[in-house]
């Protein structure tokens, strides 16, 4: 408990220093909180989103605007699917070597130098990809790939590779060693042991994490689209800079529809994955 | 194999086919006709990779990277503290353990759960873009944008932790005549506290990443400097900043892992 308590105190000090820095050394806008102008501006923004003051019909009441932006929403959904599949394909062959109990031979078999090297290489890849946020990956990747949904999907996949890979490797490290040892005792080779005991045991967890991350990814597609110019994100940015606020409201509606749909779908799929165990 | 399991197997097979179809559809929405890679994209890629050896390690730039890291950390910590302040009371209400009549408690819990879900359904940077359009750019605006989705996540997890507290100690508190408020304050909250703390520390790591990308609306920090260096094609500087980012995340990750481990034992 002592380390946790010391950490709590350390965090409180850090919080005080951080807030002090933000209020004193940055343009905090603390005085704007009480100013009438700020709040009337905010009210104006909401009114512009709803389009009540404008003589034109707001975009979200026009069927053809819904159809036109619906295509972008589908593109965004495709970006998220592509991202999650790329993540899965990249994690699948690497999460077993990334687990300590497999690389160090704790389940039988001699610890090998190449196993240890592979373990550290995979873990380093997990850490590097995970630590950098999706948007920064997108800003880098857009230098190489043509704008569209592909660079966005790749950026999302690179970050999520580290997240899902690490979680899946930790699942393998916490697996019951029994089935693997039993297979080994029955004369299974290393590869057979991995394929028939560790892999099937870890698979449902891996799929569950992947589906959880899909929920995060669909929220982030718009953000990545800001720079990779794919789907709703690009249009979101354009509408904002051209002051087409009712279009912006329509795009937010599509965004929320996508988020809710993916949340429901992912919850259902996770139930299917874990059922019957 | 029973009949039910057989049906499950079949429906799984069907589902796999369906998901494969969805994947093919997603591939079809990529524009394959145009070039996938920029002209000169391959060269730029190798250029980017080779700039890692070595990154820009000049003292002046290291100082700049350190300042940027501190700015990002300050935003992350401020955002998390605000998120805890918003998420904790909402989490208590959402767990339905607020003293009072059970029916109003349940109604409140459902309403608050909906609010929490709404807060976390929008990405922090989307909140930030909207808030900057509404309130103007300032650090408090951005911190609020960061705190909202985090409060939504923390509130939900807190409420789950509150409801998972073992019932026996609470029952004995009630039996000894403690009021519902006392049961909440002296039973439920302290028992959930270790898990609560562990999870909040874990979220701090994510907040660092979120704070870094707030550069997109014009906030200083690692993301901001990365953007500037990328615009000038100074990939060596980009690598230095990326390594600072990785270092900060690794340190916070190690810290939070040790906190969680010490809470378990």
What does this structure look like?
The complex is a heterodimer of chains A (277) and B (265). With 277 residues, chain A is an all-alpha fold. Chain A has 11 helices and no strands. Chain A has a single domain, classed as MetI-like (MetI-like fold, Orthogonal Bundle). The two termini of chain A are 36 Å apart. Chain B has 265 residues and is mainly α. Chain B has a domain at 73-219: MetI-like (MetI-like fold, Orthogonal Bundle), CATH 1.10.3720.10. Chain B contains 10 helices and no strands. In chain B, α6 (139-163) crosses α8. Chain B is globular, with a radius of gyration of 24 Å.
Task: Describe the structure using short key phrases.
heterodimer, A: 277 residues, mainly alpha, MetI-like fold, 77% helix, B: 265 residues, 10 helices, 80% helix
SSE arrangement of chain B, N to C: HHHHHHHHHH
- Mean of residue pLDDT of chain A? 88
State the CATH superfamily name of chain A. MetI-like
* Shape designation of chain B: globular
Q: Alpha-carbon distance between the termini of chain B? A: 43 Å
Q: Note the gap between the termini of chain A.
A: 36 Å
- List the uncertain runs of chain A: none
Architecture of the domain at 73-219 in chain B, CATH level 2?
Orthogonal Bundle
Architecture of chain A in CATH?
Orthogonal Bundle
Structural class of chain B: mainly alpha
Protein structure class of chain A: mainly alpha
How many beta-strand elements of chain A? 0
Element-by-element helix/strand order of chain A? HHHHHHHHHHH
| Strand count of chain B | 0
Tell me the radius of gyration of chain A: 24 Å
Largest sheet of chain B: none
> What is the CA-based Rg of chain B, rounded?
24 Å
CATH topology of chain A: MetI-like fold
In the CATH scheme, the class of chain A would be Mainly Alpha
Secondary-structure blueprint:
The complex is a heterodimer of chains A (277) and B (265).
Chain A: H1 2-25, H2 36-50, H3 63-91, H4 100-103, H5 113-131, H6 134-141, H7 149-173, H8 178-185, H9 190-228, H10 231-241, H11 245-274
Helix pairs in contact in A: 2-11, 3-7, 3-9, 3-10, 3-11, 5-7, 6-7, 6-9, 7-9, 8-9, 9-10, 9-11, 10-11
Chain B: H1 3-28, H2 41-50, H3 59-94, H4 102-120, H5 124-135, H6 139-163, H7 167-175, H8 180-213, H9 222-231, H10 235-264
Helix pairs in contact in B: 3-4, 3-6, 3-8, 3-9, 3-10, 4-6, 5-6, 6-8, 7-8, 8-10, 9-10
């Amino acid at each position: 408990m002592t380390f946790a308590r010391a950490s709590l105190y350390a965090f409180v000090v850090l919080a005080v220093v951080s807030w002090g820095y933000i209020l004193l050394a940055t343009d905090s806008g603390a005085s704007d909180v009480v100013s009438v102008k700020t709040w009337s501006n905010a009210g104006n923004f909401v009114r512009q989103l709803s389009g009540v003051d404008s003589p034109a019909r707001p975009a979200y009441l026009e069927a053809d605007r819904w159809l036109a932006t619906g295509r972008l929403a589908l593109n965004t959904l495709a970006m998220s699917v592509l991202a999650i599949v790329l993540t899965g394909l990249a994690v699948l062959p690497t999460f077993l070597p990334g687990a300590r109990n497999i690389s160090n031979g704790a389940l039988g078999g001699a610890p090998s130098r190449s196993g240890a090297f592979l373990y550290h290489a995979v873990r380093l890849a997990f850490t590097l990809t995970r630590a950098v946020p999706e948007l920064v990956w997108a800003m880098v990747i857009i230098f190489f790939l043509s704008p569209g949904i592909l660079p966005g999907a790749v950026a999302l996949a690179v970050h999520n590779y580290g997240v899902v890979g690490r979680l899946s490797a930790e699942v393998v490290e916490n697996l019951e060693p029994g089935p693997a040892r039993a297979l080994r005792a029955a004369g299974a080779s290393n590869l057979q042991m991995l394929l028939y005991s560790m892999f099937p045991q870890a698979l449902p967890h891996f799929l569950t994490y992947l589906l959880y991350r899909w929920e995060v990814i669909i929220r982030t597609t718009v953000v990545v689209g800001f720079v990779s110019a794919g789907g709703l994100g690009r249009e979101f940015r354009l509408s904002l800079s051209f002051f087409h606020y009712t279009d912006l409201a329509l795009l937010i509606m599509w965004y929320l529809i996508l988020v809710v749909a993916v949340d429901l779908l992912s919850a259902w799929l996770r139930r299917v994955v874990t059922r019957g165990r | 194999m029973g009949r039910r399991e057989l049906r499950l197997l079949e429906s799984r097979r069907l589902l796999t086919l369906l998901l494969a179809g969805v994947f093919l559809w997603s591939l079809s929405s990529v524009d394959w006709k145009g070039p996938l890679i920029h002209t000169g994209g391959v060269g730029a890629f190798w250029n980017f990779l080779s700039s890692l050896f070595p990154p820009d390690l000049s003292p002046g730039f290291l100082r700049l990277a350190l300042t940027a890291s501190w700015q990002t950390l300050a935003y992350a910590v401020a955002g998390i503290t605000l998120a805890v302040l918003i998420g904790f009371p909402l989490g208590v209400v959402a767990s339905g353990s607020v003293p009072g009549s059970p029916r109003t408690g349940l109604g409140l819990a459902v309403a608050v759960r909906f609010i929490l879900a709404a807060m976390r359904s929008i990405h922090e940077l989307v909140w930030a873009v909207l808030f900057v359009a509404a309130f103007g750019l300032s650090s408090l605006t951005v911190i609020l944008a960061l705190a909202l989705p985090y409060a939504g996540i923390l509130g939900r997890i807190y409420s789950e932790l509150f409801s998972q507290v073992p019932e026996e100690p609470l029952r004995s508190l009630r039996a000894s005549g403690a009021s519902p408020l006392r049961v909440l304050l002296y039973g439920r909250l302290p028992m959930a506290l270790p898990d609560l703390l562990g999870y909040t520390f874990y979220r701090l790591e994510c907040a660092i990443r979120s704070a870094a990308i707030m550069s997109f609306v014009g906030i200083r920090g690692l993301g901001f400097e990365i953007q500037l260096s990328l615009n000038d094609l100074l990939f060596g500087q980009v690598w230095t900043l990326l390594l600072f980012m990785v270092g900060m995340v690794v340190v916070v990750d190690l810290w939070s892992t040790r906190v969680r481990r010490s809470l378990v034992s």
